[in-house]
Amino acid sequence: MDPITTLARMLKENENPKPVSMSTGIVISPPPNAQIRLNDTVILGNNQLVFAVHVLENYEREIELEGELKFTDADCGTIVNAAGTGSVVSLNVDTTFEAKKVKSTTKDTLKEGDEVILLPTADEQLYFVVGKAVRFE
């Protein structure tokens, strides 16, 4: 093949770059000294990984809750008074609730053997760990 044709083919190949796609990996060791197996030969270390904060232990998030409590047990308890013992048939309580500035802290984190979802940068030198993978088989 002549050099001009070779150059033309190289230029044509660069017009269609390989698309970056998500993949999964297996946690070999969890954070803070993380290692994730990308495939049979590639193991990613901390310098190649960026973690979404929600997969890390002790991630704290402020949340607000509101709703209504529902009591499903018809027996609300027993009362004892001077007249004797009886059952409480109903409670006169407000069942609506509101909780502001509540903190939620995750206690679970990535563990050895977990499958994680990885999103590589275009040059595949850095991988974002976006979450745990779950498969329904």
Task: Explain what the structure shows.
It is a single chain. By secondary structure, the chain is mainly beta. The model has no long low-confidence stretch (mean pLDDT 83). It is elongated. 9% of the residues lie in helices and 40% in strands. It contains one helix and ten strands. The two termini are 50 Å apart. The protein has a six-stranded mixed β-sheet with strand order 3-2-1-9-10-4, with no helix packed on it. A two-stranded antiparallel ribbon has the order 5-8. The chain has one helix at residues 3-15, and strands at 23-29, 35-37, 43-45, 49-51, 60-68, 78-81, 84-87, 96-105, 115-120, 127-132. β1 and β2 form a beta hairpin.
Brief synopsis:
The protein is mainly β and 137 residues long. It is 9% helix and 40% strand.
The total strand number stands at 10
Structural class: mainly beta
User: Which strand order do you get reading across the main beta sheet?
Assistant: 3-2-1-9-10-4
The largest pleated sheet is described as: 6 strands, mixed
What general outline do the C-alpha atoms trace? elongated
Which stretches of 5+ consecutive residues score pLDDT under 50?
A: none
Proportion in helices: under 10%
Mean pLDDT: 83
Strand content: 35-45%
Helix and strand string, N-terminal first?
A: HEEEEEEEEEE
Number of helices: 1
Our measurement of the CA-to-CA distance between the termini, rounded to an integer number of angstroms, reads 50 Å
Overall radius of gyration: 28 Å
